Each structure stands twice: as C-alpha cells, then as structure tokens.
C-alpha cells in the first residue's frame, strides 16, 4: 500500500487501526525533523536517535488511546521535547538545576508578544506570592547568578537552608504557573 498522498489525519487513523504501513509512512515523514529537534536539545547524536526511537515506540504502543492530533508534526515535536526534558532531568544533578531551569525557561518562550506580556504578569504575581526569604534566595540564584554559598553568607543561613528556600520557591512557582504553561 502506497501512502505518500495521505494527510496526517488519514495516516493517524490508519495507524490506530494497526497499519504498520501507516506507521512507517509517519516515521519516514517526521523522523528526520524529530531527530534534529532532539539533537538540538541534547547535543548528542546517539541520545537524539534514542529519543526518536523512543517517541515512535511510544506512538505505536499508545496508538489506540491517543486522539487524532490537530497537527501531527507539532504533536510529535512536543513529545520529543518532553522526552528530552525527561532525559535531562534524569541526568541532571542538584548542582545543575540552574542550567536545567534556564533550558526549561527557553523551551517555553516560543509565545507571542501578548502571551509573553501575560506570562510576565503571571510570573511576577507568582514570584510575589513566594515568602520573602525564599524569594530572596530564588532571585539571588536565578536573577543575580550567585552561588548557594554566597547566598547563604548574605542571608546568614547555611547552604542547606538556601536549598530549602529555593525548593519552596520553585514549588510555589510551579503551583502558580502550572495552568499558564499548559
């Protein structure tokens, strides 16, 4: 069966019916684009290939429980991004959380000017809802790029307390922003 003329919605419905030919057509159509996305995120060819394989395995395993996406390409790219985030989280130690935060912030900045303005307002409100000590530790780490030790010295507390403040601040931000970023 030759499926080059089929659109994504038609291919996806065939995939849901168990068509390996449709699966192969989707793979051939998007695997290179997905690899580029994974490689750009991870900067590692082997990990990029692994992510693409994992995404297509995931797609095949869940084909019957997924709804037909409006845009299959965008959907698969987002799945790749999520898989990359998961991989980075697994590989990242606590001292690398700052880099992870920056990367995640960059991942979600593909929004319009109006969305950025609204998100900025929501972020400011979320930051203002953090307790003063936790907000101070958060701002010193992420905005002023200070080390945990420097922050501990300035706040006259130990490094573990700074980590606890940062953790609480991130938790409050996640809670306050989870609906804004979804």
UniProtKB/TrEMBL annotation:
Q: Which CDD domains match?
A: Sigma70_r4 (cd06171)
Gene3D superfamilies xrefs: 1.10.1740.10, Winged helix-like DNA-binding domain superfamily/Winged helix DNA-binding domain
Alphabetical list of SUPFAM superfamilies matching this protein: Sigma2 domain of RNA polymerase sigma factors, Sigma3 and sigma4 domains of RNA polymerase sigma factors
Residue ranges annotated for the RNA polymerase sigma factor 70 region 4 type domain, each copy included: 121-171
Protein's UniProt keywords contain Chloroplast: no
Q: Which residues form a coiled coil?
A: none
Family, as annotated: Belongs to the sigma-70 factor family. ECF subfamily.
Superkingdom field = Bacteria
Q: Which organism is it from?
A: Chitinophaga filiformis (Myxococcus filiformis)
User: Which intervals hold domain RNA polymerase sigma-70 region?
Assistant: 27-92
- Which GO molecular function annotation, any one, does this entry have? sigma factor activity
Gene Ontology biological process terms, A to Z: DNA-templated transcription initiation
**Keywords carried by this UniProt record:** Sigma factor, Transcription, Transcription regulation
Q: Which InterPro entries match?
A: RNA_pol_sigma-70-like, RNA_pol_sigma-70_dom, RNA_pol_sigma70_bacteroid, RNA_pol_sigma70_r2, RNA_pol_sigma70_r4_t2, RNA_pol_sigma_r2, RNA_pol_sigma_r3/r4-like, WH-like_DNA-bd_sf
What is the protein named?
A: RNA polymerase sigma-70 factor, Bacteroides expansion family 1
């Amino acid at each position: 069966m030759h499926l080059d003329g089929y659109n994504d919605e038609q291919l996806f419905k065939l995939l849901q019916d168990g068509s390996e030919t449709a699966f192969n057509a989707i793979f051939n159509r998007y695997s290179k684009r997905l690899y580029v996305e994974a490689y750009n995120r991870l900067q590692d060819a082997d990990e990029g290939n692994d992510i693409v394989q994992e995404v297509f395995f995931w797609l095949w395993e869940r084909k019957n429980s997924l709804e037909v996406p409006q845009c299959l390409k965008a959907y698969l790219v987002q799945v790749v991004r999520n898989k990359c985030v998961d991989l980075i989280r697994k590989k990242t130690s606590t001292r690398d959380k700052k880099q992870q935060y920056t990367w995640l912030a960059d991942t979600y900045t593909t929004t319009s000017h109006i969305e950025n303005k609204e998100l900025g307002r929501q972020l400011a409100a979320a930051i203002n809802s953090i307790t003063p000590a936790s907000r101070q530790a958060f701002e010193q780490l992420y905005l002023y790029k200070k080390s945990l030790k420097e922050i501990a010295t300035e706040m006259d507390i130990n490094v573990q307390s700074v980590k606890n403040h940062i953790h609480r601040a991130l938790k409050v931000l996640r809670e306050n922003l989870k609906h804004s970023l979804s």
